Amino acid sequence: MLNDIITPQARYFADGMQSVMRGHENRTRRVSLLKGNLVQNIRMESRGISARVTKNGYYGFSSVASYTEEDARMVLKAATENALFLDRKAGKTRKGYPALPGGTVPVNRLIVDFEQKKIIDACKEVDAYIAKTYPDLLSRSVTYTEDSQDKIILTSDAASGHVTYPRCYMYIRMTALATLTGSPVEVTEILGGAGSFEDNFGDLSPVYPAVDALYLQLMDKKEGVYAEAGNKTVILGGKMSGMLAHEAVGHTVEADLVMGGSVAGPCLHKQVASELVTLIDYAHTALGETVPLPVYLDDEGTLAKDAVLIQDGILVGYMNSRESAEYFGMEPCGNARAWDFNDEPLIRMRNTAILPGKSSLEEMIESIDDGYYLVNTSNGQADVTGEFMFGVSMGYEIKKGKLGRAILDTTVSGIAFDMLKTADMISDTLSWESSGFCGKKQRMPVGLAGPDIRCKITIGGR
Amino acid sequence: MSELREIAARVRAVLESKAVKEYSFELKKTEKKELNTENTTFSLFRTVFDDSISVHVLMDGRVGLSSGSDLSGEGIEKTVENAVSGALSGVADAANTIAEKQEEETFVSGPQEADMDRFYDRLSELLETVEKDFPKIKVLQMIADHTRTHSLYANSNGTLFESCDGLYSVMMEYAGNDGGKTTGLSYGGASTHDLEKPFIELGSFWKNLEDAVASLSQTSFEGKFEGTVIFTPECLRRFLFMLSGNYLSDAVIIDGTSRWLDKVGEKVASELVTFSLKASDERLVETEPYTDDGLKAENVMVLEKGVLKNQLLSLYAANKTSRPVTRNSSRAMVMEPGETPLKNMIASVKRGLIVGGFSGGHPGVSGDFSGVAKNSFYIEDGKIQGAVSETMINGNLEKVFQNVTAVSKEVSMDGASVMPYLATEGIVISGK
Prior knowledge:
Largest sheet of chain A: 7 strands, mixed
Shape of chain A: globular
CATH topology of the largest domain in chain B: PmbA/TldD fold
Oligomer: heterodimer
Number of helices of chain B: 9
Distance between the termini of chain B: 65 Å
Order of helices and strands of chain B: HEEEHEHEEEHEHHEEEHEHEEEEEEHEE
Strand content of chain B: 35-45%
């Protein structure tokens, strides 16, 4: 954990400028076994200090990959010079942003480090189980990833604090040959969540049933068929609808993209989804429980709170930085976050979820005569028009109200606000996923969640 | 002696104090000066001083890899310790080796100091050109930097490489926007060693801006058909990355799932396809002096007239599978141009698309892909009918490069790669 050499730097903050200083350490651990071969065995750490200084609406930023009080003063000076350079070159003032309530956020959890041997042994144990139990696999891999952020944030005109974000996961992948095509097909399961190795994998016994379930999925997919292309009635499983919440809607309501012309700009206070749909970017607590990646303080010194984006189908807000919140007349909720010590805060999602409804998955399946249940996604992308694409890595046909054959990898696409208007049944469950990184100049760990949603969507089959 | 050589001596001393006999390490000091705009206003100026150390140790066939950002004595000690503890807990594998001894060499390229006033003025000129000549373009952001990187690689076999590189880069994110309608996002980028030319003249800036404006005029078609796709240079580069990952990379060769597992020397693609990775090429500025494994980089032919010449293997994967190592780990890709002018390629398409971007995940090991065609135009009877949205393309990576009908004379050179347009048939195209 970082020792606090940042707080004493407050006395060097210049009058007439808005300043933020951040001490920041990231750690990454990665172990990967491919068919039993140890192909990755990595420990990475980065630590440094950054400063951002705002003068007449222009931001100067600087960072250094070391951690002393002298370095802190150096980056503060460099950031100030950069703000002055832009102010001089531009020759006119930009609109700034007001001060926020102060306060100090204490450390919310500790970052605990474990020996690489312990991690490797756990991966070997899981790999040995797979190799012994399922010798007929074409290929298999077990990959452990862990990353953590440790930040001390000091501001001249907002809150300050010491916050941490540890998380770790085990990715299990299996490959077999598809009967239909003779080509390899694969399935992946991701286990883990916030916290340390011990929190998530101190006891490996829950891993083995997940491996067994994954193998059954692989056997289904091995006999899979191509999905039929076209606009279909589907049930998006929780992982798929979480991806939808993040990629297809979340990005379009990030205020910087709204200012850049996103489709959400003209839609504020208008209906953009079925009235069954409510979408919230949670800060730290959702439905009475701590979310997978809780955020208490962002990197501009804003105390984090939930950002309600869609309420009963109406677009009601954006995610903001301090500057964009002032521009739109909204309240900043703590969405400005930076990945590494040398990164500036950008508007990022935190734990973005579509809220559960009242239907059961069983009745949703029974309601479909000819469609698909799309269970798992491998990736997703969207742009400012709300046009999105998700890879579907696991799914099933629905025929006459019953689950049918598995389908081979495919893709679904659509326009988010059009597609969400077709949502007519939403399940009473919520499925969280938090292993991914969102990419937007910098990477950023994000949580996303959704219920099962019945809707119409375009499938790109054969 | 350079500062990095002094630090290298300290790293060696720490490694030797821990009785590590086989090792390699890389040290880097980077200074980046980066200008960011919000829309068309410069709003953020960053100066970033980064250091990095990565240490790779090999102990009785067991490998440990550690990296950090602290080049102080304490940071070096910790990074080496992490690597050693990783190796001690690793799995012995005879395929783990250190690069052979090579002659010491220093590589210098590009401007070592940034001329920020001139850089700022060139970037302002780019924004002014877009504003004047493309009034229907809305710039979301521009990120431009000068980065100076000083790096040093050394290993226990006596190899030492030192590199000093300076590079200007610019990336612009924009969309067509006529007030009421917005197109999907487009990106333009280029990198250069000098500021002699306006940025608008580099890469495909001008053509891609024209395409973004043209995308405001939408057309559509219903149903699906099998047709011809012309990939733009930017999209072709993406497909070559996917091809490399799916059929030629470490993981798929080690686990034996590559469809081109034993195809070196065989014709696997159209004879119109000649594709290589470059270590030196006057058209490129983003090349690597040495590989991730510490081998001096060379030009590597991957596909020559459709014949597979080399797979893309690290030292470990090469040892593991008894195949030759690839002496290039970069993304400095060159696809050789063809004979056909772009306008003739378009004129010869009965029904198909020009695809400027692909929004889809990395295909599975089979190479089957399915995704949204972004920044794309519908062609019928040899004529562009208009831009399309909500249009998907489905196909197979291997077949894309087997069913090539033409490669353009025109190429895009953005400093990172040289790419033509490529036409291929047999792609399933689905409309609304």
